[in-house]
Design goal:
Structural class: mainly alpha
Helix content: 40-55%
Radius of gyration: 23 Å
Shape: globular
Order of helices and strands: HHHHHHHHHHHHHHHHHHH
Strand content: under 5%
Number of helices: 19
Number of strands: 0
Length: 344
């Protein structure tokens, strides 16, 4: 079908969300999808792309606690000095980080880079800062309306110092520009953003900064191509937290695509130039060719699923597990004609 390696990998991720027998049928129609890409390679493609991902995506990557992924995130200078220093110090970012004392190993590629930078005296990461040292400078930058300077200072604030900032703001409210800078940093706790108050300009700043808190919002608001490139790295079964994205997408993929090879062929045609979100892409491909001719496993004589014949991937999903897909489901797509696709 002439798919690029990157687009083939994106389809491979989606095919993992349907039953194995359906995936085999689709692969029989699409053919070879391209070579497998490693997660770090996919993230570097995203980092070096024309449109950088929202900052919240990199925080999800860090939550995987995989050294090879952390080495890629270390290149994202927009995250600030504090997060980059946490990476080289092996600080965990995943669930329960406040209670964890172990340190993550450095990926060999990052270890070699740091050794070379120190040898050539080009290591430019400042020493660890504290809230007591940063708060006076944050207030001064905020009062002078120096937003860029305030952002730089917010980026240097260590993760475990944000509570002190919240207490300082309660005692003596920070200037508006300082609040903007702190709110737009990915490490800012939601409770502190709420403490700063709700304002239309705040919401706009958060949107511009790409601070995304929920997987369903990221799936619905960002480009299908970029989202698939991200999910190929962080939404694998062995990665902690990746299950959130799979739970959001699996009901949608099974409903609109399933094992319908024509629908997958349309999706492959649309993907390189599609400008909408991933849920819109999935529903559009399904709507163009009509219902899946094989919507699910065979039913028993009593109309129930034969549990003994189904593996874990074929068992019907719990109705509650499919609930998140409702929030992602876009309006019905218009009927379009795509050359070479059989209509039902």
């Amino acid at each position: 079908m002439g798919l690029t390696i990157a687009d083939g990998r994106k389809l491979t991720f989606l095919l993992e969300l349907v039953r194995p027998d359906q995936a085999r049928r689709v692969l029989g129609r699409l053919g070879q999808l391209g070579s497998e890409q490693s997660a770090p390679t996919e993230l570097r493609m995203l980092l070096n792309g024309r449109r950088p991902p929202p900052l919240g995506v990199w925080l999800w990557v860090l939550a995987c606690d995989l050294p090879e992924l952390n080495a890629v995130v270390f290149e994202v200078r927009r995250l600030g000095d504090a997060i980059r220093r946490d990476i080289i110090e092996g600080v965990p970012f995943g669930p329960g980080r406040d209670r964890r004392t172990e340190r993550l190993p450095l990926a060999p590629v990052l270890e070699r880079r740091l050794e070379l930078a120190r040898f050539e005296e080009e290591f430019d990461l400042p020493d660890r800062q504290t809230a007591s040292r940063l708060l006076p400078r944050l207030r001064a930058a905020g009062e002078a309306r120096q937003l860029r300077r305030a952002r730089q200072l917010a980026g240097a604030l260590p993760y475990d110092e944000w509570d002190e900032v919240a207490r300082a703001d309660l005692a003596d409210p920070l200037p508006g520009y300082a609040r903007w800078a702190l709110s737009c940093h990915v490490n800012c706790p939601p409770s502190l953003r709420g403490q700063f108050g709700s304002h239309a300009k705040f919401e706009y700043r958060l949107q511009q900064a790409g601070v995304v808190a929920e997987p369903n919002r990221y799936l619905a608001e960002y480009s299908a191509r970029d989202v698939l490139l991200t999910l190929g790295a962080i939404a694998q079964p062995h990665v902690p937290g990746g299950s959130r994205f799979r739970a959001e997408l699996e009901p949608l993929v099974r409903e609109h695509l399933g094992g319908h090879s024509d629908a997958w062929a349309v999706l492959a045609q649309l993907l390189p130039t599609f400008n909408g979100s991933l849920p819109e892409l999935i529903s559009t491909a399904g709507a163009i060719v009509g219902p899946d001719p094989d919507p699910g496993p065979d039913l028993g004589a009593d109309g129930a699923y034969d549990e003994d014949r189904l593996d874990s991937n074929q068992r019907p999903a719990d109705p509650q597990s499919a609930a998140p897909a409702a929030a992602l489901r876009p309006p019905p797509a218009p009927t379009l004609a795509v050359e070479g696709v059989r209509r039902p």
